[in-house]
Design brief:
The chain is of the alpha/beta class. It has a single domain, classed as Roll (2,3-Dihydroxybiphenyl 1,2-Dioxygenase, domain 1). It has three helices and eight strands; from the N terminus they run βαββββαβββα. Strand 3 and strand 4 form a beta hairpin. The longest helix has 10 residues.
């Protein structure tokens, strides 16, 4: 029934900065949205494998949203971290998560929290199981 995540939509009041941020990571525009006045009002960025990030222009992004974060699987989180740092983006140190995946995180220009995951042969995303973490809602 379900094939894959098709897209995730985020709001932005600066499409250029948002596209540049994801462009640093090699993620390119697949297509764009324009209104009848030919104003660029959004775009789809292609993550590969028919998965996309939709970005919609708004005057003021909501301060609270229902997206807590999203994660991007990468080949090498150390390379991603260096790329982010070279672009002036604050990124965390590389660490091994409780799910046995290497992780680096940052915020995009819209304040959206992003995790970059590099899976290992023991990553729970590959082997399943129960991941015990110190979290209390």
């Amino acid at each position: 029934m379900v094939v894959r995540l098709a897209h995730l939509c985020i709001e932005s009041n600066d499409l250029e900065a948002t596209e540049a941020f994801y462009g640093f990571l090699g993620i390119r525009r697949q297509f764009e949205f324009r209104n009848k006045q030919n104003e660029l009002i959004g775009m789809y960025l292609n993550f590969g494998n028919d998965t996309y990030l939709e970005i919609i222009k708004v005057k003021k992004p909501r301060e609270e949203g229902i997206i807590r974060h999203f994660a991007i699987e990468v080949e090498d989180v150390a390379v991603v971290r260096e790329t982010l740092l070279k672009q002036g983006v604050k990124a965390t140190e590389k660490r091994l998560g409780g799910d046995n995946a290497w992780m680096v995180s940052c915020h995009d220009p819209n304040g959206i929290f992003i995790e970059f995951h590099e899976y290992t042969e023991n990553s729970m995303q590959k082997v399943g199981g129960t991941c015990i973490i110190d979290y209390h809602p």
